[in-house]
Amino acid sequence: MNLNPNRALEVNNIEYEDKKRLLHAIQLSKQCIPVKNAFSVGAVIFDAAGDMVSTGYSREEGDRSHAEEVALNRAQQKGINVEGGIMYSSMEPCGERSSSDKTCTVRIIESGIIKVVFALHEPHIFVYPANLDRFSNAGIQLVHIPELEPDVKEINKHLIRS
C-alpha cells in the first residue's frame, strides 16, 4: 500500500477551509431578526473554482425567504454558474417547506452544487427533516461539522432549548 504523507495535511486543510467558510455562514445568520416561526440561518456559496460568489440569510428578501434560497437567487441574478460549487449553511437545508412550493434541498440539487456543509441538523420543530437521503441520492456530498452546533443553537435560542 502506497501512503501519501501529505494526505493528512490535505484533509486537515480541507476541514479547516470548510470550518472557516461555515463560520462565515453562521455569522450571516446573526443578521436575522429572531421570529417565533422560523430559524435564523446563514448561507454562503463558493463556485467550482473556490471563489465565494453569493451569500444570504433567512428573511433577507422577505418574511418567508430562506438563506439558501436567497444565496442561490442572488447567484442566478448575477449570472453566476454554481454548478460544481459548495453550499455552506449554518443549518441543514430544508427538506419540507410550507412557505414555498420548492424546498431548499430541491433548489440545491437543481443548481448543480456538489457539496453541502452544515453545522446543525434541522430540529423537529416545524417539519420533519427528511432531505439527507435526497442529497445522497443526487450524488451531493454532505459534511456535518457538529463542533459548530452550539453557535447555531445560541443564535436560534428563541426556538431551540438546549
How would you portray this structure in words?
This protein is of the alpha/beta class and 162 residues long. It is 34% helix and 17% strand. The protein starts with 6 loop residues before the first helix and ends in a 7-residue tail after the last helix. Mean pLDDT is 86; it is low at 1-11.
Give the secondary structure arrangement, pairings included.
Layout: H1 7-29, E1 42-46, E2 52-57, H2 67-77, E3 86-91, H3 104-111, E4 115-120, H4 132-137, E5 141-144, H5 149-155
Parallel strand pairs: 3-4, 4-5
Antiparallel strand pairs: 1-2, 1-3
Note the quaternary state here.
single chain
Low-confidence runs: 1-11
Helix-residue proportion: 25-40%
Total domains, how many?
A: 1
**Which architecture would the CATH scheme give at its second level?**
3-Layer(aba) Sandwich
Distance between the termini: 46 Å
CATH class category name? Alpha Beta
CATH level-3 fold name: Cytidine Deaminase, domain 2
Q: Give the number of DSSP strands.
A: 5
**What is the beta-strand fraction?**
15-25%
Looking at CATH, the homologous superfamily is Cytidine Deaminase, domain 2
Quick structural summary:
With 162 residues, this protein is of the alpha/beta class. It has helices at 7-29, 67-77, 104-111, 132-137, 149-155, and strands spanning 42-46, 52-57, 86-91, 115-120, 141-144. The protein has a single domain (7-155), classed as Cytidine Deaminase, domain 2 (3-Layer(aba) Sandwich), CATH 3.40.140.
